[in-house]
Amino acid sequence: VVVTHRGAGAMARTQRERLRVTPGSRVLHAASVSFDAAFWELCMGLLSGACLEIDEREALMPGPALAGLVRERGVTHLTLPPAALAVMPPDSLPAGTTLVLAGEACTPALVHAWAADRFLVNAYGPTETTVCATMSTFQHADGPLAPDRTVPIGVPVDGTRVHVLDDRLRPVPPGVTGELYVAGGGVARGYHGRAALTASRFVADPFGGGGGRMYRTGDLVRWTADGQLVYVSRVDE
User: Fold this and answer.
1) What is the Cβ-side half-sphere exposure of residue 170, based on CA atoms within 13 angstroms?
2) Is the dihedral of CA 22, 103, 231, 108 positive or negative?
3) So what's the pLDDT on residue 210?
4) How far is CA 11 from the centre of its chain?
5) What keyword terms does UniProt attach to this protein (predicted)?
6) Closest by alpha carbon to 101, among 90, 91, 114?
7) Peptide bond into 144 cis (omega under 30)
């Protein structure tokens, strides 16, 4: 996937503004370099002037090892899949830690267990949109959740526009499920050396003007009444 410097810059701005990353922050680099989450962590630390904390793989395993590392290094920001956070006792990470959950669905039970005295954010985004396309506000132990108690994936990040469309590329109203399309500066150029696949996934944007493109995610979502996105399933499920 060929992403741009423009997309990386927008992602870094989102991290500074929404996640409150500052030069005094300490960001844990936990993801394998084979995943786009590693790029997310590198940018969060290095492009914000923060400290990027790196350690051996064994020290990053969810459980006592990871909890000990976070406390020992004074980590302020870490990104984990919900399944990894779910195996850790809720009192194992310090109060005030910023937790970004991404990569799979986050459950209300996880929010209830972890959000009472920490900053917890539910994020969503494929690599083709420079890692992150939408992000929730800081969650609270008792909400805010969608009416059906689903944890929202939030609203578009800096420089990004999203559209929930039917199979004829028409916007659907709140509460109705449609496919998520992402437009804006974070959209990648395409797949290197794969013109046909690029053409099928990166399509003309009829809403932005100026010959822009939008990425067809293949994810089904819906808008809530208060303007949050909720993930439903994959198109091919």
Assistant:
1) 4
2) negative
3) 79
4) 10
5) Phosphopantetheine, Phosphoprotein
6) 114
7) yes
Residues 189, 97 share a domain: no
**Do 97 and 201 share a domain, yes or no?**
no
Q: How far is CA 28 from CA 44, 94, 151, 157, in A?
A: 9, 14, 24, 21
Predicted TM-score (pTM) of the model is 0.91
Spans in the chain with pLDDT lower than 50 = none
Q: Are 55 and 69 in contact (CB under 8 A)?
A: yes
E strands in the chain: 26-28, 51-53, 77-80, 98-101, 119-124, 134-135, 155-156, 160-165, 178-184, 202-204, 213-223, 229-234
Task: Say if residues 111 and 121 touch (Cβ distance below 8 Å).
Answer: no
- Structural domain tally of the chain? 2
Check whether residue 149 and residue 35 sit in a common domain: yes
Give yes or no: residues 111 and 132 share one domain.
yes
- Cβ-count burial 175-206 (b if 16+ within 10 Å, e if not): eeebbbbbbbbbbbebbeeeeeebeebbeebe
Structure tokens at 3: 């992403």
Q: How far is CA 177 from CA 53, 168, 173, in A?
A: 40, 14, 9
Residue-level pLDDT at 123? 96
Residues in the chain, how many?
Answer: 237
Torsion from C-alpha of 20, 22, 26, 31, nearest 10 degrees: 60
The C-alpha atoms of residue 159 and residue 10 are separated, in whole angstroms, by 6
